[in-house]
């Protein structure tokens, strides 16, 4: 089953507040930009028209925690700050 097929079975109750924030100021010096390739929900986008800034949208995040590993906890990157969404908000998995 592909990632897209898995995501077809996922639902979200989107919080008003983003549970992840990205400090774009830290992205300029990030040469490999793993966020553009490793986020399974493709929440990170490269905005050429905005001088290559990284644009982040939290709404369809599946809360896998990968961006904390490849960015937030990496001392050479550290642009991502991660919290859990408020109770009852965020992604909902149907394991049935
Ligand atoms: S991995 Fe982190 S620091 Fe690098 S471009 Fe993506 S968000 Fe910015
Ligand atoms: S937690 Fe996972 S799905 Fe959400 S933004 Fe980070 S890498 Fe993407």
Q: Please, could you describe this protein's structure?
A:
With 96 residues, this protein is of the alpha+beta class. It has a single domain, classed as 2-Layer Sandwich (Alpha-Beta Plaits). Helices cover 18% and strands 23% of the residues. The protein has a two-stranded antiparallel ribbon with strand order 1-6. Strands 2-5 form a two-stranded antiparallel ribbon. Strands 3-4 form a two-stranded antiparallel ribbon. The relative contact order is 0.28. The model has no long low-confidence stretch (mean pLDDT 89). Bound molecules: iron/sulfur cluster (2 copies). One iron/sulfur cluster binds next to helix 3.
Envelope shape: globular
CATH topology category name = Alpha-Beta Plaits
Please indicate the percent range of residues in DSSP E strands (runs of 2 or more). Answer: 15-25%
Q: How far apart are the first and last residues' alpha carbons, in Å? A: 16 Å
Order of helices and strands: HEEHEEHEE
Text of the CATH class = Alpha Beta
If you compute it from the alpha carbons, what radius of gyration comes out, rounded to the nearest whole angstrom? 14 Å
Largest sheet: spatial strand order: 1-6
* Number of structural domains: 1
């Amino acid at each position: 089953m592909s990632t897209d097929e898995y995501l077809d079975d996922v639902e979200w109750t989107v919080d008003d507040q983003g549970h992840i924030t990205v400090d774009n100021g830290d992205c300029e010096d990030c040469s490999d930009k793993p966020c553009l390739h490793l986020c399974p929900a493709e929440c990170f986008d490269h905005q050429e028209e905005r001088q290559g800034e990284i644009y982040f949208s939290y709404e369809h995040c599946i809360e896998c925690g990968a961006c904390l590993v490849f960015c937030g906890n990496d001392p050479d990157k550290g642009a991502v700050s991660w919290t859990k969404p408020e109770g009852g908000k965020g992604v909902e998995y149907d394991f049935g």
